[in-house]
Amino acid sequence: EDQVTQSPEALRLQEGESSSLNCSYTVSGLRGLFWYRQDPGKGPEFLFTLYSAGEEKEKERLKATLTKKESFLHITAPKPEDSATYLCAVQDLRTGTASKLTFGTGTRLQVTL
Amino acid sequence: DTGVSQDPRHKITKRGQNVTFRCDPISEHNRLYWYRQTLGQGPEFLTYFQNEAQLEKSRLLSDRFSAERPKGSFSTLEIQRTEQGDSAMYLCASSLGTAQETQYFGPGTRLLVL
């Protein structure tokens, strides 16, 4: 069974204080690893997809990286508007071309002034 | 591109009542997914459609739950005889239907069963 574990559960940063969120996963074969951002009371908003170890993607202050066992979401010089829950999810090759996402429980990030 | 829409956004019902939620996917997307999310947890897969065909259902989807996508466009999720444990956010997502695809989520329907 696919498993996704995210750490830490919660993270409080001061504005400008860079940090990383971790996503460890277990799948029989990785089709893709996804990062989403979720604001309270809203649906997840897509950030990145990573497909193979060594791949990196960037968007504004966020950078996602992937190894064979985990992914990191690096946040550089965060701002208060980056406060949200960040969700990691995997798709398994076993389930064919159309595949459900298996999510972790998320990291709640709070960025203060 | 108006994104995935869901209706209603909030629903309060009494235990034992039936409820129905609607999801309108992004117009050119032929795959549609339903997930459920409880407080402090990540979304959990319930079921998915390729066009009008329901191709996979989670064991989380009890006999009280039924989903349809009659013309391959919008979808409905019905919960019969609601229980307090059904209280959650119900999320719909859609995707293009390619081998490497991204699922885009709607705003969700928050259900509270009293």
Description:
The complex is a heterodimer of chains A (113) and B (114). Chain A is mainly beta and 113 residues long. Chain A is built from no helices and 11 strands. In chain A, strands 2, 4, 5, 9, 10 and 11 form a 6-stranded mixed sheet that branches. In chain A, strands 1-3-8-7-6 form a 5-stranded antiparallel sheet, with no helix packed on it. In chain B, strands 2, 4, 5, 6, 9, 10 and 11 form a 7-stranded mixed sheet that branches. A 4-stranded antiparallel sheet of chain B has the order 1-3-8-7, with no helix packed on it. In chain B, strand 5 (44-50) and strand 6 form a beta hairpin. At the A-B interface, strand 4, strand 5 and strand 10 of A face strand 4, strand 5, strand 9 and strand 10 of B.
Morphology call of chain B = globular
Averaged pLDDT of chain B, please?
94
Uncertain runs of chain B with pLDDT below 50, 5 residues or more? none
Largest interface: A-B, 25 and 32 residues
Which regions of chain A are unreliable across 5 or more consecutive residues at pLDDT < 50? none
- What is the radius of gyration of chain B? 13 Å
Q: What's the N-to-C terminus distance of chain A?
A: 41 Å
- Taken in chain order, the helices and strands of chain A follow as EEEEEEEEEEE
Which bin fits the share of residues in helices of chain A? under 10%
Number-wise, the strands of chain A total 11
Radius of gyration of chain A: 14 Å
Order of helices and strands of chain B: EEEEEEEEEEE
Shape of chain A: globular
Largest sheet of chain B: 7 strands, mixed
Helix content of chain B: under 10%
- What structural category do the secondary elements of chain B indicate? mainly beta
- How many extended strands of chain B? 11
Q: Biggest sheet of chain A, open or closed, and with what strands and sense? A: 6 strands, mixed
Mean pLDDT of chain A: 94
Q: How much beta of chain A, percentage-wise?
A: over 45%
Span of the ends, CA to CA of chain B: 36 Å
